[in-house]
């Protein structure tokens, strides 16, 4: 059975996901979460506005993903690869053994703090569907924005100052965009605005020990496979200020010919993108199921 994992990024988080974390996280991981977010147990993190804040979203999403992975890992076949969308690459590296879950949580909190410090003011991200990349890039540059993620040839994500996103929306619609989707993210991820954060995070990761990963991690920037810790960590630093070619990453997953693809984390956006690219390969998200048993039974059914 050839299983591939996808770990989602920011944007799909809901109050229900964080109730799951608050009620389910335990032991060393809960202690690490309380150090990163001391107010988690006070009921003040449940609003969508709070959950969009970088310093809250990144640690909580990572914990939610690790909780799911820890429940499932002994019941699933060893993955042939993992890939993570933006923040999700942290979880992919952790699942493959690059660092422990508690260390990863601390790193996510540090990552968020560095990103927030690198870009003062109000920023955001906007998904743009239905337009050619060259046109979107040109309009974005005029508004002080940048293409941050390429999900598909006509599905891009822009990032930059909130004022630029507001000013460009009507122009994108007038140019023929089929859909604009503001993301629940308040930082200009994967753009040069975060160059300082990328350098600082890379320096933080550079001193961690090298070792063989349990399975390859495909970098979100270009789909390159890391089989040891050092290149995987280097990719984590680089991607903070570098555009992601998620379409290329999904193509790398497809070329490995998995029997099934499982998305771990809030939402099912990555599953939908993968199904558009490779409808011949079964793909589902953990959020599609009511129980871990349902996930395991589905994967077993994909083995034929």
Automatic annotation (TrEMBL):
Source species: Azonexus hydrophilus
InterPro entries (UniProt xref): Ac_transferase_dom_sf, Acyl_transferase_dom, Acyl_Trfase/lysoPLipase, Mal-CoA-ACP_Trans/PKS_FabD, Malonate_deCOase_MdcHsu, Malonyl_transacylase_ACP-bd
Gene responsible for this protein: mdcH
Protein name in UniProt: Malonate decarboxylase subunit epsilon
Pfam family, one: Acyl_transf_1
Annotated ranges, domain Malonyl-CoA:ACP transacylase (MAT): 6-293
Gene3D superfamilies: Malonyl-Coenzyme A Acyl Carrier Protein, domain 2
Residues spanning the membrane: none
